[in-house]
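Notes continue from the previous slide.

Worked example: a multi-chain complex. Inputs as given:
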Amino acid sequence: MLYKGSMVSELRKRSDAERRERTRLALMEAAGKVFVRRGYHATQVSHIVGEIDVGQGTFYRHFDDKRAIAGALFDQFAESLLAEFTPMSAPLPSGVEQYREASLAAAARAVQVLRSQRQLALLFLRQGASIDLDLDGQLAQILDRFVVLAKFHLDRAIAGGFARECDSEIVSQAIVGMALRQLDLWLGGSIDDRRVETAARELVEFAFRGFGP
Amino acid sequence: MLYKGSMVSELRKRSDAERRERTRLALMEAAGKVFVRRGYHATQVSHIVGEIDVGQGTFYRHFDDKRAIAGALFDQFAESLLAEFTPMSAPLPSGVEQYREASLAAAARAVQVLRSQRQLALLFLRQGASIDLDLDGQLAQILDRFVVLAKFHLDRAIAGGFARECDSEIVSQAIVGMALRQLDLWLGGSIDDRRVETAARELVEFAFRGFGP
Amino acid sequence: MLYKGSMVSELRKRSDAERRERTRLALMEAAGKVFVRRGYHATQVSHIVGEIDVGQGTFYRHFDDKRAIAGALFDQFAESLLAEFTPMSAPLPSGVEQYREASLAAAARAVQVLRSQRQLALLFLRQGASIDLDLDGQLAQILDRFVVLAKFHLDRAIAGGFARECDSEIVSQAIVGMALRQLDLWLGGSIDDRRVETAARELVEFAFRGFGP
Amino acid sequence: MLYKGSMVSELRKRSDAERRERTRLALMEAAGKVFVRRGYHATQVSHIVGEIDVGQGTFYRHFDDKRAIAGALFDQFAESLLAEFTPMSAPLPSGVEQYREASLAAAARAVQVLRSQRQLALLFLRQGASIDLDLDGQLAQILDRFVVLAKFHLDRAIAGGFARECDSEIVSQAIVGMALRQLDLWLGGSIDDRRVETAARELVEFAFRGFGP
DNA sequence: TATGAATGAGTTTTCATTCAT
DNA sequence: GATGAATGAAAACTCATTCAT
């Protein structure tokens, strides 16, 4: 076995692997686009491969079926989302103002993350529940994480005396609900992208004070 | 020139029409059940007709396809929902307390309506968007009606001085959002049916005061 | 048993039978229309009964199926056609001129008969062969009758010396062929109804002289 | 932005295209056979694919439905027919004898073409009109071409003085009619294949001289 | 007897998946 | 490994025919 030959084959192997990975990513991107455009259920494997002019067979070399590529997309989305929110903000706020600022900061961060994942976010927000019981459950879990996070902070605030006594579970769910609704409008295009930050501030304000006088 | 055979008794005509209507309603009821049980997309026409033991052909005499029966169900649902909320509460509240009470009353009413439509409500809340772009749009319109309703009242309250100045559009959307989230939990079974009223009260409280101290 | 009652029931019976016959005829007429309009194969029983606003079931009280009503129509058509042509013109022509006149007379008679059966004639001329092997055969038989008739006269003429020697079988077929083609154009609407007689004369002339000088 | 995976060899592409074309042709051939054997209307897609043992799906990858494959067959037939008759015989005949010979030559050519297309010819001659209003129209157009062709030559002959004055439109139609009738008998099996040429001669003779003495 | 709602066997049609090239 | 033609199981859909009213 010649040295040179071996090197070439080494190179070849790498480039093959890279090409393969590139195809996989291209398929996922295409799937995301098509899912958003036509809806998950109306999308056929042929639509996905047609989007990037790749053979039907190629799809099946990379994914088991349509459900699998949706799952892969979801995993990617969930990972990037949780990566951002798992490292809980180290110093807990101690005072209404600090809490308010922390909330705003969290919202800003969320907006940023979602902005870069628009397509996937929209896909799963709107259609996630209808894809699969399994995926529905995973989605619910993610939302639950946010509820838990909100509740954790809210309970702190109540304990610290800078939030009023309330059913923190329900209120946390409410907060997540209003955020989701806003998200839906934003990603769905009903809200101008530049007004998102303002809206976030308004929501935080509303959460802290309600609309009462 | 049309030939007209011997007249048929009015009686016969009526009984035929009634039978037809009964079958149609039975199909819709069956479809609702099956959609809820298996999900819209996993449901086949054969499942629906199997549910009430009518022929496959019967289905197609009444509806063009699966989409059509879902549309009919939605229309029925939307109608009963709007019927309840269109006759706007005659005397507008004039004061924070009255407003709060009116809100609670509205929530109670909504709960009542939805309780009797549990299945359909859940179906459309969870899967509506995934059925069809068209149905998705209709769904969005309904939600929008509630946003408009909320905003109408909120603007009144602000003008009357018993609600603080705020972006009433965003806040109204937020209110609808928190209601939807609660609904989802409730209809999905995460919340005990008997606690719904309490939750409603908590939400109203939250909307008026926020969680601030 | 009262005399009067019996008489009434007698009358009743007759009117029932008449009504029944009327319905049957109306169905046949309707079928003829729809067959011509949509083609035999594209016609559904529901189209036929829809044409005269009669119940589906009624159709089956009168005819076994779609094929049966087509058969009845054909029988009616064939009968009226043959009735006209079976009583062979008593005195055989004896001379070219007489023969020519007899041909013209026969053509005129055919035109008259067909004019009153336009619809059916068109139907069977165009679609007869495609309905059924059986009906195709019946149709072929009718045409054959005309060929035989033509050949009979032609052979006579040849024997009598006022037609040239020729393959009378082939020539007779040719005569029937040209007549059919003309018929198709006429009934199909390509030829003005008022020019049919002229065309008939032209054809007879052509048959006798050819187009040679 | 389209992603394009690794290029496929030209070779592969060609072999795929060839395979596809082969399948398409096989389907058309099978359809022709089955249509002739069972009749167009009695033929099901399953019969066609069964004839050559390909999957039902394969059919639908190549044709929209049964009507489409019949249309393709017709186009193919019409093309091969017109290809033979469009290049109008260069030197126009100038004299009765030449005209007669040209006619015989044309008939011989037609017989030759049709002999090699027997099945399709019979199919469309007998059932074409019943397939579809559209196909019926196309069929009529083809016949019209022949009428036009005949009329062109006849008009020439009249102008040249070697055909008598007559309504050339009607006579041309008649010529086509007699040819069609002969065709029907021939292809349908009523006439021995070997006698076709004789019959053609007889028809030409008849057209030139009629049966008059 | 007439009716038209219901029926379901029989076709068409789709599309995820396989597999020869 | 990539490809896209072929596949066929499974679903949708049709419509002649039955049958309760």
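Summary box: The radius of gyration of chain D is 22 Å. DSSP finds nine helices and no strands in chain D.
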